[in-house]
Amino acid sequence: MTVNYNGKAFLKDLFESLMGLDYPEEKIEIILVDNASSDDSIPYVRKHFPKIRILLADKNRGYAGGNNLGIQKARHPYVALINNDTVVDRKWLSALTDAISAQEKIMAAGSKVLFFFEYVMLEVSGACPFRISKIHTQKEGADAHQQRFAQESIKVKGARLSRDSNGCLLYDFDARGHIYVPVLAGAGEQSFSFTKETGADIQITHAGQGLAFTKKQDEIYVFLGSSLLSERFRLINSAGIEINAGFYSRDRGYEEIDEGQFDKGEALFGLSGSSLLIDKRLFEQIGYFDETFFTYYEDIDFFYRARLQGAKMCYCPASIAYHYHCGTGKEWSSSFTYHVLRNRLLMIYKNSPFKAFLKNTLAFYAAALYHLLGVGKARIRGKRLDRPDIKIRMRLLLELPTFFLIKTPQRLHSRRGRKIADSLISNWFREF
After folding, report:
1. How far apart are the C-alpha atoms of 432 and 429, rounded to whole Å?
2. Where would you tag: which of 33, 106, 334, 360 has the fewest CB atoms within 10 A of its CB?
């Protein structure tokens, strides 16, 4: 089952991969929950994938509400959740079902999630701020959809980030860093271009060898030959979810090169919400995703509730999904920032000891006021800081008391009905 909101560009690849699973077709029901898309997703699916069962939401209900709708309507005892901007391996579902039936009382199993593109790594040196412009292919007919998202999937390591007057990202290395460049399958040799902020030199090499480049007006084109592209590798998006003592969560292995370091199945605090299989009895036991969260941290809240009830969950590296990541949403957009900041505190309030909730909430209020004071001082000195998060933090200072009041019955239910001691929950905390 997948939830879609204006994700038409991703649906072809997703559904074609689901149609090719090594799993009995008669045992699979593919459900698309559409959150009131306006991009012709539904006419497209009806025409090209008529076997897909479509459920129409009356509005955009987010990840939580969309999945709840589909889970309640699903006809099978197990439901697999997969993001719409993913492609799955042929053994994706069979590996998850094997994992969930391997041991008694396992209620959920999650995939190893890799970024969609393969990558090559370049070394960069020189103190010169630069902007990455575009990925170029030497072969005509390259997938325009993939080419567009490849540009957004370039990853820069070891650089300071800032923005120019037009709001474009600037990367600046003190000494040496790395650029991970996506490789477009079937596109032949590639190059990528960048523009420098100043006239200072910048060196780009691979394995100590300089790379050929050309200049066209303000842009510098770096050529990626076939020998370099043959050394491509995968980057990890998620090998399960970890949580720390501050109740911050992260994807285990995020942006690490996949070298098999997470190829062992094991129990984890939580699983990537982008690709997992859940026994529907777990929803009957602990409830559905909290629709107030809309998106982000609703999966962590769900896993926390499951852990308090003693449910077992496992990470299954044999199940692989390839994820564009934020294909239909942008990291650190206003919506992203608002929901991440708010939902983390709501998750803590609903599930953790009151002392932990009080500590984290007071820390948030203190930090918000500190940041506001810093921006105020900067403006007095005639400086304007690029801090769009300040308005969001101020909004939350006013809204959170009401949300806490609304969530009090859920907190009482979660805390009074727990079967696992908080000391056992703390065993899942990792340092990061």
Report:
1. 9
2. 334
